[in-house]
Amino acid sequence: MDHDMQVRNAVILASGSGRRMQQKERFPSKPMTMVDKKPLISYGIDVLINGGIKKIYIVYHSVTADVLKVLDYSDNYAEYLEFIEEDVRKGTLLTFSRVRDFLVPPFIMIFGDIIVDKSDFVNMLHAGKKYIVSDADLVIQTVCTPSILSEKAFLAENGRIIRYRKNGIVDETKYGERKKYGGMVYLWLSDPFRIIDNYLLNQNYRFSSFLEDYISDHIVYEMSVNDMWDVDTPEVLRRTEELIKKRGGLDGSIQ
Prior knowledge:
Distance between the termini: 34 Å
Radius of gyration: 17 Å
Number of strands: 13
Order of helices and strands: EEEHEHEHEEHEEEEHHEEH
Strand content: 15-25%
Largest sheet: 9 strands, mixed
Shape: globular
């Protein structure tokens, strides 16, 4: 099986209002916030295209409608991007469910506010693709020591993710277990939507609740990356721009 031909589609979730970014006005939205002279969401788009993805579905809401303007930042974006507007914004899990008619596994899901080096992303994705022919249901990106710490935490053992807590894992770990951070890139190898329907039926729209249960009941592996973080506050935005300039961009290997 040619793994590179298997993961051709991706979804970017970009409907969040980004309240912690403390925008004084409605626009620019969080996905379109400028980071070193380009929209934040374009960093995710670029790494997906560079990783061999052929079609990217961007889910947005009226509060992030300016994300349509991202087409102005690259002549080839129109070839890859398709936009899906959600009319009722209640939570990430509902947002994710909007793509069920467009995507079948294996496919990539990322959030619209990630920062990662392009070559690092490709290496991570290559590592994750080895699980396509395995019994894995999901592969999640993890980072041991991100430059900017994420609140999301995982517990991994021998490459397998065994526990997840959105607000961090604070208890003691056992021998062989390691705390990891991340959870912004998901390689879905089995269909998650049937399970998601049960949560939505009970009006539970929190992706974190779903993910905690999913990891405990499914085979989930990690695909490690050297560095990755999400931009969710003005302080992180400032530090991100400083790191990008210090590294001379995000196209080469992170030092």
